[in-house]
Amino acid sequence: MSSREDEFCQARIAFQGRIVADATHEIQNHFAVIKEYKGLISDLLQSKPNDMDSCVKRCREISGNINERARLAAEMVETLNRFTHRGDVAVSRFRVEQVVEDLVSLMQRSASRKRITLEAAHGRKVPEVANDPSLIQFLVYSLIAPIVEALPEEGRIRLSTQRGKGKMPEITLASEGGDADLVEQELMAPELLSSCLDRLQGSYLVEDAGRKRPKILLSITSLS
Asked: Which is nearest to 223 in space by CA: 142, 119, 135, 97?
């Protein structure tokens, strides 16, 4: 294995590790809160309250909070499960907006530590594509991560998917906030970017149009 290929593989493994670590930490947080709520209900029931109606009302409120935390934890587990299985095969059919949505969800914790808003928007009639969804997530993550670090608090990163030229999907990355360097200076290492695009048979374009923060446009090709 060449040093370039070795570097590429190590970068992908590191990316997967960071995503899984953040997701499992978030799931653990939900379970910790559920445990606290459970203890609170136990305390209420053991305190022999004089106003039983108020106690029942409070227990119902806490039960609703537990259900909400359980729902969020279940959603995160489902998203993480999809993420870990994206690389089961080299090429599969998928919807780019689902891949982007999952990545944005899994990156929320790392972005929130810097009070950065991550959001996804999707156009209509974006076609399915046959490609490597895991590699697309790695590429998009590698473009977003340095921008998250460069943006000041209250910055915003928006990922949009749309139907592009030739009816192939496109992903647009735009950021707002601060006077950070141009997007070209925040891109992943050129060798890794080139390796990703070669494997995906995709392309990217930096749209300047006089912006302090140009947009990045990724074009995704269907391999079959």
From this structure: 135
